[in-house]
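User: Once you have settled down, look closely at the record that follows, taking as long as you need, and be ready to discuss the fold:
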Amino acid sequence: MLLPLLVLFGCGRDWDAYDPRLGAPGAGGAGTSSSTSGTGGGGQVSSSASGTGGMGGGSSSSGVGGTGGTGGTGGGGPCTLPLQDDFNDGTLDTTIWDVFKASTVNVAETNGELLMELPDMPAESPWVSVQSKETYDLTGCSVFVQVLEGLTTDESYTSLQLIAGSEFIEIVRWNGYLRFKRVLGGVHEELSIVSHDLVDHAYWRMREQDGTTYWDTSPDGKSWQNWAMAENPVPVTSLRVILAAGTPTGASAGRARFDNVDIVP
């Protein structure tokens, strides 16, 4: 049965003005990276590989769109990607990940999880993007992550993203809701939204099967609920995996915590 899709363009929010994942140069504070290059709003960091940086900028509040239709329980992809990390050894594996961030953000692998800490009442919009060094073929496969905590300040976001060039698909927590999205040509489309629950939506997953992309959640990483699906919005044979978080200028401190990338509990 096909899901009813709720498509919201921007949802009243100026996404482009406050989305470091788009990596627009020359806007906001400078970014830093531990092992790769990217543009962080006017400041450039460099090393051996390329990636997207971040930008600051303000945003305006907006109302919440309606909730999309609920899908059925989804099955996992038949393959397991070579990208797997349980964040248990106390040091972020730089053979797997590149880190882009505002200088005020702390990123650490601690207590068996990936921790992103953003500053209290910042003077600029802090952001962080932990990106896979390699690209992966999602054909017939899935990518998932356990999200232990997301930023809760209004206008803040916590996301799992799969990116191909400048276009991407994602699951993002924003203003208390999970939003199942695709971003094509700079236009944000929300296919469905649901009120976020840390227990019911502990795992976020995107998967591909027979030319269709699915956006799913799970309480335990085993039994999955499908929330949105669409004909593959982006090329799935070469996708980079990104874990990201950001908050607007002047917002109170927050943190995002991730665990178990492609590791079934």
Notes: The CA atoms of residues 36 and 47 lie 5 Å apart.
